[in-house]
Amino acid sequence: MNEQDQELTAQLEERADYIPLDRLEQETVVTDFYETVHRKLIHTGTKLLSGPRGCGKTHLMRYTYLRCQKQSTLPFAVYASFNRYYRLEPLLQRKPSAVATFHTWVLAVILRALAESVRDFDIPSRETTFEQVVGMSADELRNIISKIERGQQLEEFEAADARQISIPFVQDALRYFTEKAGRTRVILLLDDAALTLTREYLHDFFDLVRSIKTSSITPKASVYPGTTEYGPNFHAAQEAETVNVWLSPDDQSYASTMQQIAQLRISGFSSIPVDVAKYLMYAAFGVPRAFLMLLRGFQQSSGGTTQAIVNRLIQEHATARVSEYSSLRLKMPKLASIIEAGGTIFSRLVSALKDFNDNVDANGGKMTMVVGVQGTEDNAPVERIFSLLIEAGLLHELPSVSHGEGRIYRRFIINLAVLLNDRVFSTKTRGTSFKAIVEVIESDQTSKHPVRRSVSTLVGKELQDKLHPDLPACTRCHTERLSTNQKFCHNCGAELVDVSAFDECMKIRVAEVPGLTGWTKERLEEIERFNTIGDFLAEQNPVSKLRQIRGVGKQRANRIIQLITGYVDEYLS
Predict the structure, then answer these.
(1) Are the beta carbons of 182 and 72 closer than 8 angstroms?
(2) Where are the alpha helices (DSSP H) in 181-253?
(3) Engineering a disulfide at 325: which of 77, 189, 255, 392 sits with its beta carbon 3.0 to 4.6 angstroms away?
(4) Residue 219 in contact with residue 243, Cβ under 8 Å?
(5) Contact call for residues 216 and 184 (beta carbons, < 8 A)
(6) How far from 522 is each of 222, 316, 513, 527, CA to CA, in Å?
(7) What count of Cα atoms within 13 Å lies in the side-chain half-sphere of residue 468?
């Protein structure tokens, strides 16, 4: 495999959904933290797995599925991913029955996943097959799902099959095959359930989660801390238990857990200097995917000193994390001003921490990586800002502390890659020594005395005007709306249409997809009518299109397609 293919493959290997099931168990670290999550998934009751991208939600769901498959004492399991829901977003603007179509799509995806479980659990088919029980084959379900995602008209027989699909219909099928598998319960592992682009779909999804649950059918869904909205009928605090899947950098098992992950997944990990590996481990901020990417980046770098290579990796990673937060403005246009204000608040928290640590030596104190914020619960927009910062992986929340009556501070660790990039732990005595800086971080793992700030100080007068939802302007005359419920422009009378995050994504140039090598990006620019994500998704045979490039064979073309598709799935999830 040449250098170009190695880089493309490395990008894909960090994603749990690309790890074959036969390798997944071997590459899973079993620690108390992750074992607790696994037990939550196999037990009764609805569970919501919460955490930022890359923290392990998909990995743990697929690992639990595999464990259930291999141990007859565990429940029957069905794993379904909804990461393609965004393909249905355009229907909301042009089809009155969009939500009903989405409802059918969700249930069809669950049935297709059930067919895979029937195969993987090796359920005897002497008496009856999946097709005989459900009335349609797995391939027929795939065709229905594919056509719905592409906005295509169903054939008459497909439409008849689709009309049969209902919650009771799916429940009956689940119960039937649970009994045939010799199990008493079934767990529905609903991955990528944070359908943040589409409030209508998101609310319907959690209505479905609430309705499909029975004493023998228990759903488990992966969500995000800031952008997941459950709707008026699903009360998350009452109807489900939220399970945090994000390992905190101050956890006593943090270093050993991350090291075990690297040993399993990174060939040649032992050759990386110990101080460098630990430095990158904390920069990853509890996100295994980030740690693996940083380690591979170090291994693949050549030229320059170790210090220069590590500094570049940290800078790129920190910039990417901040950019991910900023990209929420495109996904959630109505929160654009609030998200922008959040970026300013985050910068002020970083500055406050740096100012404090810069003066530690003079004051004879101790450096810290923790900030405490008072008053978020009294300000709904600010509360949302902190949820979004957590979702983007810029803040990790710790238990709150009290500093007297009425003075409760929420404690947060700021993303360590950002702090390392801003030299928050570097002083004249410590310089930029990897070992010395890691010692500072590890010595602060139980800090209960954060750098304290109030919401009023962080927001200030200049941000007050930004703490409100943004209403999309009229697309005809560009006049701003007066209210969220307004249907027609009060200036020109045109029908008001919400900004589509899907459409915005379709405009992104293919060559801008992160993870593509410089050589690949240059070659992609040379292909006609293949410039944007929209062009890519519209192409019937993208492999043939990519193979027009000299030096791109079938395998490399497939890797490029997987990388672009994965980027779109994650961007719109």
Answers:
(1) yes
(2) 199-212, 236-239
(3) 392
(4) no
(5) yes
(6) 37, 21, 12, 10
(7) 9
Answer whether 392's CB lies under 8 Å from 324's CB.
Answer: yes
Phi, psi values for residue 483, rounded to 5°: -155, 165
As given in the structure block, the two tokens for residue 118 are 């029937």
pLDDT value of position 431: 60
What confidence score (pLDDT) does residue 511 get?
A: 78
How far apart are the C-alpha atoms of 466 and 471, rounded to whole Å? 12
Give the CB-side neighbour count of residue 264, counting CA atoms within 13 A.
19
User: Residue 228: what pLDDT?
Assistant: 73
Q: What is the largest CA-CA distance in the chain?
A: 79
pLDDT along the chain (573 residues), means of 10: 48 53 71 89 92 86 92 95 80 81 94 95 78 92 91 90 94 96 95 72 86 95 77 77 90 91 89 95 93 92 88 93 86 80 93 88 75 82 87 90 75 95 77 84 70 86 72 63 64 63 72 76 76 72 75 77 74 61
Q: Helix H segments across 121-253?
A: 130-134, 138-150, 156-164, 167-180, 199-212, 236-239
What is the model's pLDDT at position 502?
Answer: 65
The pTM is what? Answer: 0.77
User: Please, how many CA atoms are within 13 Å of residue 531, restricted to the half-sphere of its CB?
Assistant: 3
- Cβ-defined contacts of 260-269 (< 8 Å, 24+): 260/29, 260/31, 261/29, 261/288, 261/291, 261/292, 262/291, 262/292, 262/295, 264/26, 264/27, 264/28, 264/29, 265/13, 265/27, 265/292, 266/292, 266/295, 266/296, 266/299, 268/299, 269/295
Closest CA to 202 of 88, 109, 96, 97: 88
Predicted local confidence at residue 130, as pLDDT? 92
Q: Which residues pair with 401 in a beta bridge?
A: 409
Measure Cα distances from 317 to 53, 269, 287 in Å: 14, 20, 12
Helix (H) or strand (E) holding 67: helix 57-70
The residue type of 449 is: H
pLDDT of residue 11: 47
Neighbours of 53 (CB within 10 A): 18
Tell me the one-letter amino acid at 278: K
Interatomic CA distance for residues 447 and 174, integer angstroms: 48
In degrees rounded to 5, what are phi and psi of residue 195?
A: -80, 70
